[in-house]
Each structure stands twice: as C-alpha cells, then as structure tokens.
Write a structure and sequence with these properties.
Length: 281
C-alpha cells in the first residue's frame, strides 16, 4: 500500500520555506484520511419496490436495513393455492371464442383444468355464501358451444362465421334478493346485402331457487329483445311465450350445480354435463 512504500524512502529535505519539523512529531507525516464520502442516494431508494424486485427465484425476500424493504414470506399467489390453477384454467379456455372454436383436445384440456380448480376449492355450500352470486357474470367458456348451435347441447339455431347468426358476449345477471336469474346474450343477425347486420341483445328472464347445498333450479319466464347499434332507438319487445302444452319439456326450467365459486370466478356443471366458466364482469 502507499503508506508502506513511504516508510522505505529517505526523509526528504524540506524546502527552505517550509517550517522545520517538530521534534515530537514523526519523521514522516501520515497522509490524512480522506473525508468519508457522503452516502449517495441509491437508485430507486425511497420508492416501494415492485413485486419483481422483492421476490427472488425461490419466492422469498429479505429485509434490507438500508432500504427498509418489507419482508414477504411468500409471494401473494402462494397464499391462495387455487390462484395458479385458476390462471391455468383461464389459459386453457382463452382463444376458444367461449367454446365455439374448441376442438376435442381443447375440451379435454379445459375439463382437466376445471377439475383441478374444483378439487382445490372443495365442496360448495351456497346456503352460507349465497350473496356471493350477486352481480353480473361473464361467460368465458361453455363446453356445449362446441356443438356450434345456440342451444349448446340442446337443439338450437346454428351459429358461425358464415351463418346468419353470430354469437356475441354472454352474461348472467343474478339478484339474490328478488331471485332473478337473467341470461343476457348479444347476437348479430345477418341480413341480405346491402342491408347491414342487425345487432340485438336478448334477455332470457328466469327465477331461481336453491334446491341443495350447491344446486340451483331456474324457471323460465320471458324473453325480451332489444336492438343495439344503429337501431338502438327502437323500443324493446317481448317474444311471445309458447303455451306450456306446446313447449319442449326442457325449455321452461333447468338445473345446474355450482362446483366452484369465489368473488371473481364461478364454475358450473349443467344437467347435460355442460361445463361453464364465468368471471365477474
């Protein structure tokens, strides 16, 4: 080091103008220590670290006395074991156009992913958490739509890109106080050229009742159609209901079981083995 090298050199002769060294001082003056550098502000100090900067490869974080970073014992998604399974299910059904574009392999993948969520979530008891059904739910997948008909596993008009009916968004609106259960469907009805397609929203109104810890029965009441788009100024109209003697047996009511649900996802199994996945809208 520099101080060691100085001890090997002869005592330099001071310049005439320099004051003579004190007899009590050392022959060689020890270089003064440089003043401690003022601590520089670390990049990003004072800001709350992002999850990416806090969580390491092992999913753990440590406390730093300099930055005062809070300790995360585990990432947020590890506190809910169902969360990664829900993401897996969403990934399995994404890009399937609610099931209309699903192949047999896609249906099997969605079924397996939904089963993992159901098993991890455990048994559903709607009698204790019925209020969680309240709200507007968006359908993101139905295994029955792979049949390419509007009725799913039931008979219904065909839908598809080259056919006169195109299916849009599908919602369920549930009111636990009034027991209203409405299926809301956006449709585009084809028309001869040069007439543009007609956009409508059909609301199939039902009443529901809980007939088990996780089973729901719905009873059909009426269908209301409202034009949207360029014809949105037209008033809604109600489609006449067929007499009970002329209606198919399955038209007026149906049953399904809620196999998983929380504040943002719901999975149901229909009476014809139809798997449906909803997210809160």
């Amino acid at each position: 080091m520099a101080s060691s090298c100085l001890l090997l050199l002869p005592n330099p002769t001071p310049f005439p103008s320099s004051p003579p060294p004190s007899s009590s001082s050392a022959a060689l003056s020890v270089p003064r220590a440089l003043p401690a550098a003022s601590p520089t502000r670390r990049r990003g100090a004072g800001r709350r670290p992002s999850l990416r900067s806090v969580v390491g490869k092992r999913g753990l974080a440590t406390r730093s006395s300099l930055d005062d970073v809070s300790v995360l014992d585990r990432p947020p998604w590890q506190s809910d074991p169902v969360a990664p399974l829900k993401l897996k299910l969403l990934s399995a059904v994404s890009g399937l156009n609610r099931g209309l574009a699903a192949s047999e392999e896609d249906i099997q993948k969605a079924e397996a992913a939904a089963k993992e969520v159901e098993d991890a979530g455990g048994l559903v008891d709607l009698s204790a958490d019925l209020e969680k059904l309240q709200g507007r739910w968006k359908l993101i997948y139905s295994s029955a739509f792979s049949s390419r008909t509007l009725g799913g596993s039931r008979p219904g008009p065909p839908i598809g890109r080259l056919l006169p009916i195109t299916l849009g968004q599908v919602f369920q609106r549930i009111d636990v106080l009034s027991k209203d259960f409405d299926n809301i469907v956006d449709l585009e009805l084809g028309a001869p050229w040069p007439i543009p397609p007609v956009e409508v929203t059909a609301t199939l109104a039902h009443k529901f009742e809980l007939i088990g810890s996780a089973k729901i029965k719905i009873t059909f009441e009426k269908t209301t159609v409202k034009t949207t788009g360029n014809l949105s100024q037209l008033p809604p109209f109600e489609i006449p209901r067929l007499p009970d003697a002329l209606r198919p047996p399955a038209t007026g009511s149906g049953e399904f079981e809620v196999t998983y649900f929380d504040s943002d996802m719901r999975i149901t199994r229909g009476d014809r083995a139809e798997l449906r996945v909803f997210v809160i809208a």
